[in-house]
Amino acid sequence: MSSKQLKKLILRKLIEILKWCTATRFRRVVSSLTIVALVAGPISYIVFKPKPTSAAWWNDLWQYRKPIAMTNSSGSNLTDFQVKALSGVNLSADISAGKIKSDLGDLRFTDINGETLPYWVEDSTTSSVDAWVRMSSVPTSGATIYMYYGNPILRSPTSQDSSSGLIITKLCKEKNP
Questions:
Q1: pTM of the model
Q2: Which of 57, 75, 97, 166 is most exposed by smallest CB count within 10 Å?
Q3: Where in 60-142 does DSSP place strands (E)?
Q4: Distance of CA 100 to the CA centre of its chain
């Protein structure tokens, strides 16, 4: 069947459908409502489509951030708890690209509300980074935190560093080991 014949066949079928749809008043109403539903549904989805939410950027001095999904399979909400945020993460490509300092001094973690989280780096070889954060709460549904990096002017913080008023990075290892 040629393309021209196919077009004629399709046109004939559309005319038959149109005649059937307009044959009675009931068919016209049902056909009109069906067409409206078929057109309005996708248009309303496009217009009112839910947009993914994301936390506001914590601090403009940091150039990069990555979301980290924290899980809790304990069966109950955890409060004031240390959680392993990074486990064997390879940051060598980011360090080579100049996105993060080799001593991880510009690494920071925040919760979904932009509150900085205390953290400590357990293993800091660039090919395998393990980092722990203390979270005020970890619901059973889980939580999202953000890892910020890429602040070339920042020095590595210490447990006594509160000059910025933003962060203290040392955790007490004895709680929730």
A1: 0.59
A2: 75
A3: 64-70, 78-89, 108-110, 119-125, 128-138
A4: 21
